[in-house]
Amino acid sequence: MKVEELKFVKDFVRITHDAWLKGWHERNGGNFSYRIKDEEVAELKELINETSECTPIGVSVPNLANEYFLVTGSGKYMRNVILDPEANIGIAKIDEKGKNYKVVWGLINGARPTSEFPSHLMSHSVKKEVTNGKNRVILHSHTTNIIALTFVLPLDSKVFTRELWEMATECPVVFPSGVGVVPWMVPGGAAIAKETSKLMKEFDIVVWAHHGTFASGETMDLAFGLMDTAEKSAEILVKVLSMGGKKQTITSDNFRDLAKDFNVSLPEKFLG
Ligand code: 2HA
Ligand code: ZN
To answer: Which residue, 17, 119, 143, 148, is most buried by CB atoms nearer than 10 A?
Structure first.
């Protein structure tokens, strides 16, 4: 058995390919990570090498101590993952303090996990805590239409949530807690990681102004599906704005009716 043949690795590779086909991952844009389940780690044990050197993460994530992550590589192209997984993705193990990681499989020839590993890990840390360990996936994509909207809408969570909810009836059901917004910040470091993870306490989807989107989920399908749904909604909004703006829309009372029938709770702050 090779690592590439394990089900969770095959699923991960398929999502990277689908995300490339969506047009969200030009060049080395975007990155993807999955917190590997204990039973999957057990399958890996014979196939990995834990002797490599430790590297500081740059942030502290004590509740992720000793966890294993499947992650895309820094500078690697999402479109190349399917052609050569071992060169473009890898498995990183977090140390017992949650401060360092080591690469235990893949990312051959000295490659490193994504430059956004601090943002991924801090978001994983928050999501693990607030979901009782259920949430395992973080996807960062350069979603064209959501990025476009960050140039014309106020960079405000209430505005983004409401506008994206209104553009497709499924949206409040798919992301009932709404959308977080981080103002423009330098990517790749601890500061943007902290801001993103703070918003991840409340939201499953966080927009980085003039840059892209972070989506989280319990499964790879759910994280990908969330990104896809929000980005499609943004595409509809771009079209609506291009046609002169809304002439009618879904009302707050419509949303309240939807919430009742679909058994979701929509925060009143987005319905005012
Ligand atoms: O991997 O997307 O945010 C390149 C990026 C940085
Ligand atoms: Zn990016």
So the answer is: 119
Whether 225 is in the pocket of ligand 1, judged by its Cβ within 6 Å, is no
Pocket test of ligand 1: the residue of 27, 28, 117, 123 to mutate, having most ligand atoms within 8 Å of its CB, is: 28
CA 250 to ligand 1 centroid distance, Å: 35
Pocket test for ligand 1, best of 74, 120, 140 (most atoms within 8 A of CB): 140
Domain residue ranges of the chain, discontinuous segments joined by +: 3-270
Q: What is the rounded distance in angstroms from the CA atom of residue 55 to the CA atom of residue 60?
A: 13
> Strand pairing of 100-106 and 179-182?
unpaired
Summarize pLDDT for 106-143 with one digit per residue, the tens: 999 999 999 999 999 999 999 999 999 999 999 999 99
pLDDT in tens, 53-82: 999 999 999 999 999 999 999 999 999 999
Query: Between 3.30.160.270, 3.90.1720.10, 2.60.40.1120, 3.40.225.10, what CATH number should domain 3-270 receive?
Result: 3.40.225.10
Q: Give me the active site residues, please.
A: 116
Dist. CA 86–CA 225, nearest whole Å: 25
